Amino acid sequence: MDSIWHIIVTSTPQIAAAGLKYTxxxxxxxxxxxxxxxxxxxxVKISTRRGWFLILKAIANFYVWLFRSTPLLVQLFIVYFxxxxxxxxxxxxxxxxxxxWTAGIATFSLNTGAYCAETIRAAILSIPxxxxxxAYSIGMTKSQVLKRIILPQAARVSLPPLSNSFISLVKxxxxxxxxxxxxxxxxxxxxxxxxxxxxxxxxxxxxxxxxLCTILSWLQGxxxxxxxxxxxxxx
Length: 235
Description:
It is found in: Cell membrane. 77% of the residues lie in helices and 0% in strands.
């Protein structure tokens, strides 16, 4: 029992350090980039423009379908291990070579953007059509309606599912170990290979993930209360 406790005490700082250095930054950067991509994709998908814009809409639909229909682990392998074999003469003669950090950020961002795009699209469409018409009646343009009326409300509606997506992303960063990023799970694997205590190490890293996600869940609840404080409670 003492040896197990010693392993926990000595290993926790190493795993936590990997979380601060890799897990959390990867999750935050990927989510921000994915959210930007998601907003753009959602606006393209709900647009009623015709002509050449239909091509852009088709690309957006294909992108969302592709990343929601394939496993994240497979996406990571394609980007990191597969793209180096994509050799295009004059453009990529040696293939697309990405370091683990870039490959991980790119894949997590694209995957997050696909899921969040549908969340944001649904949130925008949930705003009553009457609000659009009322804004148009006082001379506001479509971009003004989106910026001043629709998007602020859609942000509040989409906050819970987007928060859940971020929490899921934090856990999904453990897959980055498969492309040699030394995040929390990878560190626990390395330590387990040294002390031959895989149950202890994997349970420890699971507990650290649980603590981190619990903090994020509390923050989600706080943000929901703050953004809903002006709403009338249901009787």
